[in-house]
Amino acid sequence: MINPAIELQTVGPNDRNRVGGKGFSLAQLKRGGILVPNAILITSDTYASYVSSTGLREQILLELSRKDFQDMRWEEMWDASLRIRNMFLKTAIPPELVAQLKRVIASGFKSSAVVVRSSALDEDSGIASFAGLHESYVNVRGIDSILDHIRLVWASLWSDRALLYRQELRLDVERSAMAVVVQELVEGEKSGVVFGKHPMDESQAVIEAVYGLNQGLVDGIVEPDRWVLDRKTRKLVSHATATRNKALVTSREGVSLEPLPAGKLSGAPLNSEEVTEVFLLAFRAEEIFGSPQDVEWTFRQGALYALQSRPITTASPDQRDDKRPWYLSLRRSFENLKALREKIEHDLIPRMVREANALAERDPKALADSELAEEIARRSSIHKRWTDVYWTEFIPFAHGARLFGQVYNDVMRPSDPYEFVDLLRGSELASVERNRMLEEMAASLRADHALAEELRNEDYARCDEDFVRKIEDFLEKFGNIFVGTGSPQQGRKALIKLLLEMTDRGRAKSQSRSGSITLLEENFLSQFEGDQRTYAVELLELGRASYRLRDDDNIYLGRIEAQLFLALQEGKSRIGTRSGIDAANIDAQEVIKALTDVGYTPVSGDAAPPKTKRGFQLTARQILGQPAGPGIATGKARVIAHLSDLMDFRAGEVLVCDALDPNMTFVVPLAAGIVERRGGMLIHGAIIAREYGLPCVTGVTDATLLIQTGDQLTVDGYLGIVIISRENGSSNL
Amino acid sequence: MTEIAKLKKQLKELFASQKLAVLATHNEKQSYASLVAFASTADLKQLLFATTRATRKYANLAANPNVALLIDNRSNRETDFHKAVAATATGKTTEVGTRERTRLLKLYLGKHPHLREFVSSPNCALLKVKVDSYFVVNRFQNVMELRPR
Questions:
Q1: Does this complex have an ipTM over 0.85?
Q2: Does A615 touch chain B (CB under 8 A)?
Q3: What are the tens digits of pLDDT across the range A89-135?
Q4: Which residues of B touch A733 (CB under 8 A)?
Q5: CB of B86 within 8 A of CB of B8?
Q6: Do A338 and A406 belong together in one domain?
Q7: Which residues form the PEP-utilising enzyme mobile domain (chain A) (predicted)?
Q8: CA quadruple A381, A382, A387, A390: dihedral positive or negative?
Q9: Domains, chain B, ranges and CATH?
Q10: What are phi and psi of A371, to 5 degrees?
Q11: Any idea of the CA torsion for A708, A714, A717, A720, to the nearest 10 degrees?
Q12: Residue of A554, A613, A618, A565 whose CA lies nearest to A588
């Protein structure tokens, strides 16, 4: 039988691998005579015993080996992490271990409130700093709640950020384990962090301090006052004051952000004696550990406590090509996300719509060559500007849905980790509205055989005026949905072809799940009381806005892209007519040059490399992705390599694509299922599949190369696998 | 490296690391599985194994030469679920003819030198499977088919 916990005062010099970096440092501080809160350290053996005896260890490794880590997008990492977190939430600690833990925790704390902190084994070793990567929970009361939070801290070993960080440092995922510090809650009146050495200037030390609990500062919710000291002379260099208006304090359970009492608004959290005392704490810690430390501290009734200490490490290597660390750093707090929402909904989106409308008013056909060249350059730069906004503002806002998902799963512990997505579907997506209009037009055709026949014979002159107007309204509202397939006339023709296909197929199953959504919402909100309920309602609202925007922003960006495309098409068509060359693969810069200079011969884009014969033939039979829409579907594959392939889409086929773009989703009501190379639960393909109740698998590496149009597919949206039946012939690899 | 080259490399490594394969044969009424010491040709197009002619598997092969061979690197630990690779080869079995016997026997005994006496006994047959397809399973559920042409 293992010893599940060690008391702080009994930690020995060889215990680092059992108690983790944070626990080990606390023990050293205590031995060095620094005041630290009373704590019990739950060893990594306890974690190991839990994941081994419950089978969780292999479940986690199976989840992580679905795909090469290097091929995973940030959203896929988050999804994997979410699924793993749910495994922890659903896997109880075995009764024998519970009994042991209860004994040691009860002997240490009885009924007082505690902080449950992560203490990862590689953490704070001087090489790796895991600051803020794993979770800490403040103000946890009662033995059962403490045990629940220990599990949450264990789960945070597999958070997306922690996974990425360990990968960067090449730490072995299979040997990862976590110790936990259960620490008496010292409810300080003022708290902060002291850096024994300034991360940017080695000659200085820095204190950051806030009123209330330290978590307000660490999580970036409360702005700190900041003091800088010269390390050598120990003289104060500067004091920068903060806009002080709130503090994080304990509530009945957990913590809450409260307005600062009037008396504290103008006064700095620390007086000059306290500033000196905190600096001395940092220097004392430096003596104990032999290197400059970053120490979290709090003052309670005049006594200074060190809450944790870790060596100051340099930042992780700058990997500019890998955008994932950047995405993962975008964990914005609730307050920041609310402000971002305001900006997106009331400023950015309306401006984007105005810009698209203004662009649409200028017809590229009416422009002279030189004007057209200027227009293409202008539209390219507008498109680039909005694409940048998309990355810097819209993508970070996706974290609203993630934040809601995490809270929902913590509270509800559902068997499906994506149940929360149903609750986010509170309002209608722009693409669903578009598809409903298509469905209505298809319904009129179903009812009016003569009209359908006229359209089939391309006898538009005899068509019903009302119907023609509907088509024109549709094209005006949503633009040419077949953008990329040719001229507006061809787009109209393709739309009619699509409508006829929809007519033949019969009415699409519509997803009316409003009843069950109301129930989900009631169940969720009923878990909260008082202030917490207000928070839950706001969080749900934020999650919904975030989820909606993941879809709609693409549509708005798509409209700007369509205007650029129209101008480019016009330019290419003129160049093609003039010089007789195939202008399809010429890029925008070349089109501009050729329009400005009649004598210039544009360089065409690269053609596909020739295929070589090989001695073996490869066929994928069953490929792995992520389960993104529950259900099982079979049908023939339709691989969308180019937008024009959508025109051939037939009812009952499985849509296979690289990245499903909202501008492509008008064929979704015809599809039996969706398979996508790009991964993630909150990507458009997954959202729209869930909306239509279609089985969907995302994150299938090389999907469009391994699958060919015509292959018989089985899409298993429960397990995230795609089974391919093909008699002969190889894939395109 | 192409996907095909990667998969071939993976197969070669797997075959080099394993001595035994599970051979599946069939008679009219019943499937039958046996452990056999196997070897593969360098081009991966043929797999070799040996059996005495008095065995049930030999009788099955005489009646139906279509077989499946399973070669895997499981370690009988839980980690197999995410780490193990399994390859199922399907194909047709024939007895190695006199013309190529010297070359293929050398290849076979190169891997299993301790079987020299067994293979040389008069009643033992050296058999080759001309592989139609390899079905390679990794990551628990990922299945690729590789067909020699």
A1: yes
A2: yes
A3: 999 999 999 999 999 898 888 778 999 998 888 654 444 444 445 57
A4: 2-4
A5: no
A6: yes
A7: 650-720
A8: positive
A9: 3-142 (2.30.110.10)
A10: -65, -40
A11: -60
A12: A565
